[in-house]
Amino acid sequence: MTERRKIKEEEINLIVFLLNKVGLTADEYPINEYVDEYEGYVMGSIGLGNPDVSPYAGDLIQAKYIDSDSKEVAITLTMDENGQLLDLDFWKVDFSKLLVYPKPDDLFFAEE
Fold first, then answer.
1. DSSP single-letter state for residue 108
2. Residue 21, domain extent
3. Which of 15, 24, 70, 84 has its CA at 20 to 30 Å from residue 58's CA atom?
4. 112 part of a folded domain
5. Residue 24: what pLDDT?
6. How far apart are CA 109 and CA 102, in angstroms?
7. Mean pLDDT, to the nearest integer, of 9-30?
8. Please, what is the average pLDDT of the chain?
9. Do residues 25 and 19 lie in contact, with contact meaning Cβ atoms separated by under 8 Å?
10. Is the CB of residue 57 less than 8 Å from the CB of residue 63?
11. Is 111 contained in some domain?
């Protein structure tokens, strides 16, 4: 079950940062004004609201974050088969609630 709402500024900032990290822009992968909250927004995952969404086609980028309770969170920006943004997924290692939404400076990457 999802809940549709207007995208938050902090979510836009994170998506733009992740796109830029892989050499892409929001012009190439437009960010919709409305998103779908997954699982009551417990871990922060959202569907990026494309009306003609197609199946998952891959990850654009993965990042890690350490929440305020010292638990690791995996963050993945995905795309669909139509080449549009699909999801911004958060997976906290213990499946608990995301306590503090990450800022771009809080993220780290496997290659760093």
1. B
2. 2-106
3. 70
4. no
5. 96
6. 14
7. 96
8. 91
9. yes
10. no
11. no
